[in-house]
Amino acid sequence: MLDARTPSGPIEQKWDKCRYEMKLVNPTNRRKHSVIVVGAGLAGAAAAATLGQQGYHVHCFSYHDTPRRAHSIAAQGGINAAKNYRNDGDSVLRLFKDTVKGGDFRAREANVFRLAEVSVNIIDQCVAQGVPFAREYGGLLDNRSFGGVQVERTFYARGQTGQQLLLGAYQALEEQVAAGRVTMHVRSELLDVVIVSGRARGIVTRDLVTGQIECHAADVVVLATGGYSNVFYLSTNAKASNCTAIWRAHRRGALFGNPCFTQIHPTCIPLSSEHQSKLTLMSESLRNDGRVWVPKKKGETRPPNDIHEGERDYYLENRYPSFGNLVPRDVASRNAKEVCDEGRGVGPHGQGVYLDFADAIHRLGMQTVREKYGNLFDIYQRITGEDAYLVPMRIYPAPHYTMGGLWVDYHLMSTVPGLFVGGEANFSDHGANRLGASALMQGLSDGYFILPATVPDYLASTKLDAVATSDPAFEEAKTEVKARIDKLLAIRGKRSPDSFHKELGRIVWDNCGMARSDAGLRKALARIPELREEFWNNLCIVGTGEELNQSLEKANRISDFLELAELMCIDALDRTESCGGHFRVESQTPDGEAKRDDANFSYTATWEWQGLGQAPTLHKEPLNFEYVPLSQRSYK
Ligand SMILES: Cc1cc2nc3c(=O)[nH]c(=O)nc-3n(C[C@H](O)[C@H](O)[C@H](O)COP(=O)(O)OP(=O)(O)OC[C@H]3O[C@@H](n4cnc5c(N)ncnc54)[C@H](O)[C@@H]3O)c2cc1C
C-alpha cells in the first residue's frame, strides 16, 4: 500500500503542520551530511543552492557543460503566483482550485494546495535575487493570463522567463560553489542509482568527455532531471532532454506515476519537413492577444489576409465563450486536431491553424505588441521566414511536457527511501493536464521550499551508516553500467541511434499521442518490443566509449526511451477513461470532450518494474477530493 504521508488536518494547515512536525538538523551537524542533487535546471539548481546555503555538503550533477544550459532556460511565457496584484479575484484557494480542475481531478489535493500557497514566496525570492520580471509603467510587477483561468496571475520576463529565473537560481548556486558548499560536476551523466540496505546512497555517472565511469556516495539523493517528452522524438524540449535518470531509478525500485499523462501543447510551429529533429514552441502567452482561427471552408488555399471575417471560424471563441482562446492546453490541442482532421487545416501539409494578431495590433498598437511578444515574433520569423506582424502565425500541437514521472509522497520522496524527486521529473501536482506557467512554479516550489525542508527531516530522522564507494553495491552497479555500454558498442549493426528514435517517436505519437484507442495502443505494444529487439541487434555506434561520443550518449538514452514507451502504452491502455491530455477515443462526452470515469479511475497509477519484457505491477494511490468537488470540466 502506497503511503503518501499527507498530513492530517484542514488543507490550509497541512504544510505548516508538516513543517512544524519535521525534524531539524543542527547547523553544526549539517556539514557532516552529504547530498547528491542530479540536475541543475530550475528545480535542481534551486534545491542544490538552498541546501548549500543551509550548510550541507552538496554535489550537483549535470550532463550539460554549465547549469545555464538546462532545458529550463527555454521556458518562455511565465510563472504563476496567487499574489492577486491585479485585485481581480485571485487567491491561494482559487489557484488551487484552477490547478485541480485544470488537471482534470487526477492530482493529490494536499500537494496542489501547498503549491498554490508557496507560489507567493517564489516571486519574492526571485525578485530578491534580481530576476527582472516585467513591470508596469509605475514600477509594479506586471501580470498576464494563461490558459484555463480567468484571472491575471502570471509573472513574466518578456518571452524569456525561464532564462531569467535560471540565471537567478544559477547565481545562488554559484555563490555556494564559491563558498565551497556545493561541488558542481558538469558533463557528468547519471547512469544508475545505488541502493545500500534499501536506501538510495549514491549514483554511478559517466564523464561525457573522457568516458570514465565513476561512483559517488552520499546520505541522500535528489533527482531533478526534467521530463521525458523526447520519447516522441519530435518535441519542444531541448534535444538532450531524456528519461535515463528516472528510468534507471525506476529499474532500481522507484515506482513510476501516471507515465501516460503527457502534454501536447497547442501553439507550436508546425513541422515543415520529414528531416526535422526539433519542434519550437510559441508561448501560450500569445493566446492573451492572438486569436485562433481556421477557414470555414475545407481545402481553402487563399492566403489568410484574403479570407474575410465572415469566412473565418474562430472556433475556440465560438465553442468556449467563457474562456475563448485561453482554454487549457489539452482542450485547445484537441480542437486544433479536430479542425485539421476535418480538412480545414492551413499551411503546406494542412497541419496548422492561424494565430492572428491583427486585432491586437489594431487595439494596442504595433509597439505594445512588439514590447510584449517581440522575441517570440523574431523566433517565428527566423524559423518560418514569415512576418507575424503582417500575416497570422501558423501553429499546431506538439509534445511539450510530461505530467507523469517518478511517484513521490508529500515529502517528495520516491518509493525508494532516501531518493527524492523534484521538478518535472516527479509525477507532480498537475494531474492529467498541466496549466500554463505552472511548471516553473512547481519546479521552484520543490527546489527552493519543499526539498530544503523535507530532505533535512529525512537526514535528521534516519540512522545512516557511513557508506563508501568501495561498498559492493557500488561495484555491482558500476559493472552493470559498463556492461550495458560495452553491449551497445559491440552491436556494430547498420542503423543509427536517431533512426530508432525517430521510428519509436512515430509509434508513440500515432498511438499514444493526442488521441489513444484500444486498437492503436495494442498495435504500439506489439511493435515497441520488436523495435527494441532490432535496436539491440542492429544498432550502429561510431567511436569508442573512452571519448566524447554523442552517438553513444544518444543510444544509451534511446535504450531507456524504448522501455519507457512501452510502459506509457501499458498505462494508457489500462486507463480506459479520458482525462486531461489522456484522451481515449472510446470515452468522450456527446460534444467530444474528455469523459472521466471517477468510479473506476480516481487514482494515481503507479507502476513497479518487474524486469524487461515482464508485465509491470500496478499499484494505486486513491485520490479524494474534499475541497474541490468532482465535476465534469467545462470551459464553455
Ligand atoms: C519551450 C518550452 C517553454 C516552456 N515555457 C514554460 C513557461 O513559460 N512556464 C512554465 O511554467 N513552464 C514552461 N515550460 C516547462 C518548464 O520549462 C519545465 O517543466 C521546467 O523548466 C523543467 O525544469 P526542471 O528543473 O525540472 O528540469 P530541466 O530544466 O529539464 O533540467 C534538468 C537537469 O537535469 C540534468 N540531467 C537530466 N538527466 C541527467 C542525467 N542522467 N545525469 C545528469 N544530469 C541530468 C540536466 O543536465 C539539467 O541540468 C516550458 C517548456 C518548454 C519545452
Describe the structure.
- The chain has 17 helices and 19 strands.
- With 636 residues, it is α+β, with helices and mostly antiparallel strands.
- The strands form 5 sheets. It has a 5-stranded parallel beta sheet.
- A hairpin with an 8-residue loop joins strand 18 and strand 19.
- The radius of gyration is 24 Å and the shape is globular.
- It starts with 13 loop residues before the first helix and ends in a 14-residue tail after the last strand.
- The structure holds flavin-adenine dinucleotide.
List keywords for this structure.
single chain; 636 residues; 5-stranded parallel beta sheet; 19 strands; binds flavin-adenine dinucleotide
Q: Helix amount, in percent?
A: 25-40%
* Major sheet description: 5 strands, parallel
Query: If you compute it from the alpha carbons, what radius of gyration comes out, rounded to the nearest whole angstrom?
Result: 24 Å
- Overall pLDDT, averaged? 96
Morphology call: globular
Helices and strands: which structural class?
alpha+beta
Cross-sheet strand order for the largest sheet: 5-2-1-9-17
Residue ranges: pLDDT <50 for 5 or more in a row?
A: none
CA distance, first residue to last residue: 39 Å
List the helices and strands and how they pair.
Elements: H1 14-21, H2 27-30, E1 34-38, H3 42-54, E2 57-61, E3 79-80, H4 92-102, H5 109-129, E4 154-155, H6 161-178, E5 182-185, E6 188-196, E7 199-207, E8 213-217, E9 220-223, H7 244-251, E10 256-257, E11 262-268, E12 291-295, E13 312-313, H8 315-319, H9 329-344, E14 353-356, H10 358-364, H11 366-384, E15 393-402, E16 405-406, E17 419-421, H12 439-461, H13 472-491, H14 497-512, H15 518-538, H16 550-574, H17 598-601, E18 603-608, E19 617-622
Parallel strand pairs: 1-2, 1-9, 2-5, 9-17
Antiparallel strand pairs: 3-4, 6-7, 7-8, 10-16, 10-18, 11-15, 12-13, 12-14, 14-15, 18-19
The structure holds flavin-adenine dinucleotide.
Flavin-adenine dinucleotide binds next to helix 3, helix 6, strand 6, helix 7 and strand 15.
